[in-house]
Input
Amino acid sequence: MNKRWGYWLFFVALFLAPFYLTEFRLSLLGKFLCFAIVAVGISLIWGYTGILSLGHGVYFGLGAYCMAMYLKLEASRGHLPDFMEWSSVRELPWFWKPFAHPVVAVIAAIVLPTLLAALLSYFTFKNRIQGVYFSLLSQAVVVVFVTLFIGKQEWTGGTNGLTNFSTVFGFSLSSPLTQIVLYWLTAAVLALIFVMTRRLTTGRLGKVLIAIRDAENRVRFLGFNPTVYKVFVYSLSAAFAGVAGALFVLQVGLISPEMMGIIPSIEMVLWAAVGGRHSLMGAIMGAIVMNTAKSFLSENYPDLWLLLLGALFVVVVLFVPKGLAGIYESLAAVRIKEKRGHECEARVDVS
Output
């Protein structure tokens, strides 16, 4: 089957999910699609550019908190959020006030992660910090932000985070219709990001990114500035994570510092690794498959699910190093080889 037709069928199946999934399963799939958006960004920077980031949970969390601040103010209906009252805060902090407007929240969910990523990546890539050193630096950023968000309980809700949302844009979040619309919105954003990223990676930019991944010094010798490309692609992946975080809050209804910590950041890398970090669709499938397996195993084997999930990852890494996308590519290569063999036999018969 042509890849393009496969992509069409996949996204059509996603958009039709509300018609064949229960309300609970649909909410789970909506959450998994948020994770898939992050996985696309991870594939872009790791699989295509060779940048291994272990701190994308921060960008995911920033986007989520921006949307959650708007939802919390809307739920408070002109009063101080409940956690601020518990912390003896008497007036809404100045940086909270703009988030009373949904447009500001949406823009901030994209802009703030992008600016943070651009600032961090510019100074690190300009000084040619890469490889494991960049990975450790990205983890350090996670520790700083998690500590900050937990410590400033009067501003962020502390370890509990932000929750107890009731409406979004005036519509009830508990309404099944609202949840279906939010699911379709998430699926549409995922499709849009996939198409945009695929065009980037299949064009001239994609070739430059792959060249940077494989031989950065040679790219620099040829007259390109790798720093510009790496800052751009890293900031773009952070924007994807911010969008995913904002959609995640709408789907799940809460965000806490735990969700932007080191473990979630590493899990994001695992999704891309299992799906195939060199494939955008593989990253999407990896996020969906890994989180589906996590949900299934935790429901059916509550005492063993962590061990089983770890074993699944080990099996994939050892026996399918290119991930799920590698399996598809291998099968496609076998089919092409068989087809060519049949064509050769037909020519021999004719002659």
In short: Residues 3-319 form one domain. The mean pLDDT is 89. The chain has two domains: 3-319, 321-351. The first strand starts at residue 167 and ends at 168.
